[in-house]
Design goal:
heterodimer; A: 482 residues; mainly alpha; 2 domains; 67% helix; B: 299 residues; alpha/beta; Rossmann fold; membrane (chain B); transmembrane helix (chain B); transmembrane (chain B)
């Protein structure tokens, strides 16, 4: 069940009505309904993988309790590693086994040995990377004595499986979400309206921006050898818009849906393409994953303590792991490596926390320097996304080589250029609204608040009209593949 | 909560009312009965996809109108034909193109892929009935919703423009003349690379059957016709299946096979389509077939 499907448009109001009218003000009933509807939501993809989700939930629930009850550190450590190894084991088998098998075969073929690697013929269970990371953070937090193990299975399962975040995040923390699960939710008008606004904006991002940009990104990347440097660069820009519209749109719908049920999820995006350097970009892109790696990998590795060399080493490690988290392909590893390279100057010269506030706060326009920095950061991001989007590293290098050739100066040419121009105009309007609303949680959170309600409603209706009229060819959410 | 629900219902209500008003306007204004009236002397209709759209120049065929439309699957032809026939009781004969590619599984794309849906729903969306809507929605729900929503906007403009004589203005298909001439086929480029047909488009054939039955129920003379094709177009990939379908599903329907009508290369724009010259020569012949000696049409 996609967030942008008619099924979800039916599912959401039905669960909403049951939640507020049938289970109203009864914590146990609220949580049971959340859990049942979340499992139903997940089973709509493939009911067989429900068992994996339930097993993973039971595993972390049980090991959490066992760790809490452990009298000695040996026993605690045992249950901790037991949970970690099974969680990572599942992830490894379903997500990385084929990659390692084929990479091994490729590697030994260089020594003249030919083997046909045995690969698994299974599809990747949707959301496995996300719910595994939910569970891992929970187990690590218990091991580090940051939280106590949850005794109520339904409440713990709600934390892991809450349907808005189940398949593509945001990656929640027990410290943030579990306390909300344990408290009865009371309907709040402003929060619910905010949630609807965020869903509307998320749908606009996904259906109008991402799906339309995808058409041209796919067209150009899939046949890259036939295009000039300028067309390929434009293709990379289309993908840059697509992935933002796609993933941040998904996150907006997730956060908005959660708000309808009285939950506040972790913010996942904060206008990353208005960043002035790569460090700021990574504080604003897929925030829940970046902070997860910061807290559960970077800091345990020593973080920024221990001198420049340690910082450099740890930064490379988290970017490589982050790249690998996205998928079992060398392209993601190179993408992570490239981002680590980008961020290196600010790590070495200790300028990575120079831009903590949103750009041009309280002003309409950025300074010339900020504008230049935003443009440079954006272009760096575009080049990195080329690796992310390409099927292979060699394809990515080929595309970059063509972009950096004299054909960059040619006028871009490809099929459907009129529609592409419309898409670019829509994207420009979209980024203008994002710019105007950049100090809020999402761009239209307070957009038009100074207008009369009639005009504000008109604006929302226009957004709906745009969603229907400019709907691009439906694309699967990119992050469902991870 | 009450305030929230009221506002949400009001917002959704505005959208629903707008859509309903738009559909009603389209249904009543875009396909007004008087706009679908043909001149009284017209008694022959020709339907089908790009083959007939390029082959039948009705300047040379008496009493006929060519409503062939490139890329049109039979489901759309069916609803279009019904609407035209309802408004023109003088119609006596209906010719429907039936050729090899129309049985191919690839025709399913013409029925419900995103691109075709957008064209067809815009043109004939309001003519579809519940059964057709259910089928198209089941096969491509997102594509159908997208096409339907786009048609709501796109057709608003048409409501206020002069659409009199929708048929004669080509609003439901037309003859499409072109002067392009087929490139001389090299001996090795003869189209023999097509794979043998392994599956058929059951829905396309089903709607052809419905169309035939509808015409028969209206006591009209129905004839399936295969327009001329260039010798380089090799039909062997599907001919036996095609003939089986023809004999099994349309055994009581007249069949006019003009595939091998002798036309020089300069009469074709490509291996499947005639150009203006070819259409003129063929249409003159067709006129003789259908208007002067209807015995030429074989059972």
């Amino acid at each position: 069940m996609f967030f942008n499907s008619l099924n979800y448009a039916l599912f959401l109001p039905i669960v909403f009505m049951l939640y507020w009218f049938v289970t109203n003000k009864n914590l146990k009933s609220q949580n049971i309904l959340i859990l049942v509807s979340s499992y139903f939501f997940y089973a709509c993809w493939d009911w067989r993988f429900m068992f994996l989700l339930i097993f993973s939930t039971l595993l972390d629930y049980y090991t959490g309790i066992k760790m809490s009850e452990s009298k000695d550190s040996y026993s605690k450590k045992f249950w901790f590693w037991f949970s970690i190894s099974i969680n990572l084991g599942f992830l490894g088998v379903f997500k990385y086994f084929n990659f390692f098998a084929t990479s091994f075969a490729d590697a030994i073929s260089h020594f003249g040995l030919q083997v046909n690697p045995w690969t698994l013929k299974v599809i990747l269970p949707v959301g496995i990377s996300f719910y595994t990371f939910h569970g891992l953070s929970y187990v690590i937090d218990i091991y580090k004595d940051r939280i106590k193990a949850e005794k109520n299975f339904v409440e713990y399962a709600c934390f892991v499986s809450f349907f808005p975040l189940l398949v593509a995040g945001p990656i929640e923390r027990a410290t943030h979400l579990l306390p909300q699960v344990k408290k009865v939710r009371v309907f709040n008008y402003s929060r619910a309206v905010d949630g609807l606004r965020q869903i509307l904006w998320g749908l606009f991002k996904k259906i109008v921006i991402a799906d339309n940009c995808a058409e041209f990104a796919n067209l150009i990347f899939d046949d890259h050898t036939n295009y000039s440097g300028s067309t390929l660069f434009l293709g990379a820009v289309f993908f840059t818009f697509q992935i933002y519209g796609d993933f941040s749109g998904y996150s907006d719908i997730a956060l908005g849906s959660a708000r309808l049920f009285g939950f506040e999820l972790l913010k996942n995006f904060s206008y990353p393409y208005f960043s002035r350097d790569i460090a700021e970009f990574w504080r604003r892109w897929h925030i829940s994953l970046s902070t997860w790696f910061r807290d559960y990998l970077y800091i345990p590795l020593g973080g920024s303590i221990g001198g420049t060399w340690m910082k450099v080493r740890n930064t490379f490690i988290i970017f490589l792991v982050s790249g690998f988290w996205h998928g079992a392909n060398w392209t993601f590893l190179v993408w992570g490596f490239l981002n680590a390279l980008y961020i290196m100057p600010s790590i070495i010269f200790n300028t990575n926390r120079n831009n903590l506030d949103i750009v041009a706060k309280g002003k309409l326009l950025p300074s010339l320097k900020d504008f230049g920095s935003i443009l440079l950061t954006f272009i760096l991001a575009v080049f990195a996304w080329i690796f992310f989007r390409s099927d292979s590293v060699s394809q990515a290098f080929d595309i970059i080589g063509r972009i950096l050739s004299s054909s960059l100066l040619k006028v871009p040419q490809f099929r459907g250029i009129t529609k592409a121009l419309t898409t670019l105009l829509l994207s420009a309007a979209f980024f203008l609204i994002e710019w105007l609303g950049r100090e809020n949680d999402f761009a239209i959170q307070k957009f038009g608040f100074s207008w009369s309600s009639k005009f504000r409603w008109m604006f929302y209706l226009i957004l709906v009209a745009f969603i229907f009229y400019f709907a691009g060819k439906e694309q699967v959410f990119i992050y469902f593949n991870f | 909560m009450k305030k929230f629900l009221l506002r949400v219902f009001f917002f959704i209500g505005i959208i629903i009312v707008t859509v309903v008003v738009d559909v009603v306007l389209q249904k009543n204004l875009l396909f007004k009965d008087e706009d679908l009236k043909l001149p009284k002397e017209i008694s022959i209709l020709i339907f089908g996809h790009s083959h007939p759209a390029n082959a039948y120049n009705t300047e040379y065929i008496q009493h006929a109108v060519n409503l062939g439309e490139p890329g049109e699957a039979y489901i759309y032809t069916y609803y279009k034909a019904k609407k035209v026939i309802e408004n023109n009781p003088q119609i006596k004969k209906v010719f429907i193109e039936f050729t090899n590619n129309q049985i191919d599984k690839g025709m399913d794309d013409w029925l419900w892929d995103d691109v075709h849906l957008q064209y067809r729903i815009k043109s004939y969306g309001v003519l579809l009935d519940k059964e057709a809507i259910q089928l198209l929605y089941k096969k491509n729900s997102t594509g159908f919703i997208n096409a339907f929503s786009k048609s709501l906007f796109d057709n608003i403009g048409s409501l206020f423009t002069n659409k009199k004589n929708l048929i004669l203005k080509g609003g439901m298909g037309k003859f499409m003349p072109t002067d392009k001439i087929i490139e001389k086929p090299k001996s090795d480029s003869i189209d023999k690379k097509r794979k043998l047909l392994d599956s058929i488009s059951a829905y396309n054939i089903l709607y052809l059957q419905k169309l035939v039955k509808y015409c028969q129920d209206k006591k009209m003379e129905v004839c399936l016709v295969r327009s001329p094709m260039h010798k380089s177009y090799d039909v062997s990939y599907s001919e036996s299946v095609f003939k089986t379908i023809l004999h099994q599903n349309f055994k009581d329907v007249k069949w006019l096979d003009n595939k091998n009508f002798p036309l020089p290369d300069k009469g074709f724009q490509d291996s499947e389509h005639l150009n203006s010259f070819g259409a003129k020569v063929y249409s003159q012949y067709f006129n003789e077939q259908v208007n002067e000696n209807s015995n030429n049409i074989r059972q």
